Request: fold
Amino acid sequence: MRLWPAREAEASPTVTAIRSPEGIEAERVVAAARERYGVMLSAGVSELTQQILRIGHMGPTAHPTYAVLALLALGGALRGLGARIDLAAGVDAAMKVADSAAAG
Reply:
């Protein structure tokens, strides 16, 4: 999976946007994450509605552990829709970031 936009200088500090895998509409992923795991993700807007998945990290969800939970729900939803996802690798990478944020 790829971040969107690709350049960090253009990214938002309040949301992480990810391109949905080819052939899987973002709105289906959002619905599956909400239905299966009770986690709210968002699809893109306008022409990106079916291409972009968004994970918000503002207010109470600004803690790194919420990002890890969102990734778990995202990965589970994608797997349920037929995507080949290495969920363990994604969670491991997120935990490393969360650990470094907690350290300082």
User: Anything to note?
Assistant: DSSP finds three helices and three strands in the chain. The chain has a mean pLDDT of 90. Residues 8-103 form a domain with the Aspartate Aminotransferase, domain 1 fold (CATH 3.90.1150.10).
